[in-house]
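Example (one chain per record):
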Amino acid sequence: MTGLVFNIQKFSIDDGPGVRDLIFLKGCPLRCQWCSNPESQNVYRELAYNENRCIGCQECKLCAEECPLGAIRKSETDKIVIDRDLCNTCGKCSEKCPANALKMFGDPLSIDEILKISAEDDSFHSRSGGGVTISGGEPALQADFVEELLRSYHDHGIHGAIETCGHATWKDIEKVCRYSKLILYDIKTMNSEKHEIFIGTSNHLIIENFNKIAKYFPEIPIMVRTPIIPGVNDSEQDIEEIARYLVKINNVYKYELLEYHRFGEAKYAQLGRKYPFQGAQMVSRERMRELTRIADKVENCHRC
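Predicted structure:
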């Protein structure tokens, strides 16, 4: 059994307890306009091109010469242009590129291969109380693979967590939760209309699955995270609505607000796409502190 992985990030300290490996899987059912990992969205391999790294056709034509379909040609600036309608993402061009200007996102890896990679950091995991977090994309889109991977981590005594947006069938959500020791759950907004406008679908299934996880997996702690997006969910009402909903769920142990950033914007161009959230302003640190205080206030009032 293999999973389609587009990145493995080591030594993370932000996605669960301790020092962790992050396993990023391809495929996501949502289309958040601000998505920082566009390479995660599609369930197939993709070719990215970083023009700034390209040596240029005058000095190097290896990629064009290697392409069996003629999908790569010289541009007006002496760099290259990829005809993505012709490209079959075979990856031969990226293997020949001496400057790493061409890169494939999505490698089929077996469970044994991933376990071997994680084993390199066993000492860091055990000493820090860390482990592995499976993210994406959406892990539930590769539910059978994730279930077996988490079972393997469980059998090896490694703390396994998942990060999910919750937009999947309950059957698949149940599979990825079964051997999880921690669930990181993304809730962007309680407003279904906003959710549909900015993310491409309503939030009904996400909330429904969240309630089911709380009911059927009460022993698994849940960390809920909300990326604060300017003009989407950066109002006091938005955060209050989420916080008031969460205080009713017993196994939610932490609610975290994340700052919007543009780190993934350049990757859209590399994949031949336009960044949908162009021109958005950053949320100030002071505004983030205000919204965090609102979330904390709701939680503290509930405890009182």
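Caption: The longest helix spans residues 285-303.
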